[in-house]
Amino acid sequence: MIDLRSSSVEETHTIAAAIAGLVRPRDMVLLVGEMGAGKTAFATGFAKALGVHGDDHVSSPTFTLVHSHTSGRIPLHHADLYRLTSLAEVADLGIRELLDMGAVGLVEWGDVASEVLGDGLSVTLEADDEDEDVRLITVAVDGHAWDTRWEMLKNALRSWTLR
Ligand SMILES: Nc1ncnc2c1ncn2[C@@H]1O[C@H](COP(=O)(O)OP(=O)(O)OP(=O)(O)O)[C@@H](O)[C@H]1O
Ligand SMILES: [Mg+2]
């Protein structure tokens, strides 16, 4: 697990960009945290770092469920499970299948369906009681996909790591 502190939305964008720099096709990234925690903010920084164009812009996918961005270095599928009520509905979105075709997945509220979504990185954002611009961000991994990249990831995130 890697524990980070972000002190602004811009810093969350930069942290997301550092992670995006190490992703590969078929990676799943679950975004975890309450409403307003910064999941969509993370997604915005992540997409930009993958090279997604401004006119292919990242917004909250709450109403369309999956937004696909194909203008970056790897196709990105950004989903929000907030409105879904069953694991079957999540499975029907077919996100894993999209990743199998060589894309990266970014799923808001992904923790509720990790058994359907499979292994990957999880990024948990938590607000801070004292400062409304601070977020505590925890990066964790399920499975082995990051085994050979974990040290690089730690290095890339060193500036924001809590110790
Ligand atoms: N350090 C920070 N990191 C991320 N967002 C921050 C930070 N500080 C303040 N904010 C603000 O918090 C809000 C985060 O909103 P965002 O839509 O990203 O949350 P969300 O987790 O996607 O919520 P929802 O579950 O409603 O989709 C934004 O208004 C952003 O400007
Ligand atoms: Mg959101």
- Considering DSSP H and I runs of 4 or more, what fraction of the residues is helical? 25-40%
Can you tell me the residue ranges where pLDDT is under 50 for at least 5 consecutive residues?
A: none
Could you please say which CATH topology applies here? Rossmann fold
Please give the radius of gyration in angstroms: 15 Å
What share of residues are in beta strands?
Answer: 15-25%
Shape: globular
Biggest pleated-sheet summary: 7 strands, mixed
Which structural class best describes the helix and strand composition?
A: alpha/beta
- Count of alpha/pi helices: 6
GO molecular function: ATP binding; metal ion binding
GO cellular component, one term: cytoplasm
Keywords: ATP-binding, Cytoplasm, Magnesium, Metal-binding, Nucleotide-binding, tRNA processing
Family: Belongs to the TsaE family.
